[in-house]
Request: fold
Amino acid sequence: MDGAPLFLAGVQEELAPYRKAAKHAHILAAEYHGNVEHASLDTLAQAAAAAAVREYREASERALDSLPEIAQKITGDPEEVLQAAQAGRVRQIFVAEGAHMARANVAGIYLGEDMINAAVVEGLRTGADIFSLPGNEIKGVGPIAAVLRF
Reply:
């Protein structure tokens, strides 16, 4: 699959030269060390999933750490995030995993839909990068924050 992350599994001495010579754009940092012929598919799948989640969390934290540098381009108002996402004006959305905000009617489209969920759906539809963070709120921001394109 083009652009999909690659999880390396095998004998450690063989993985380092492969990593060095590989042309693949996105190789996960974590690896499974051992003879893959003796590992179950479930074991490899769990290791790959854990590596992907760990890398995703690290990318989320790095992106979140950069927010103070671009404070003028950030909004934390859920309705504003949704409207900007619908218009394709959102570059990144940060959402707290436990966040919910019911709204009866948002922009005439999401009748009874959770506004946070609607904003994420619209962000995905219009090409925004989505980062989910543990908890009910993003420290100092609220349940959702967006970096606007313009």
Q: What stands out?
A: The longest helix spans residues 41-65. DSSP finds four helices and six strands in the chain.
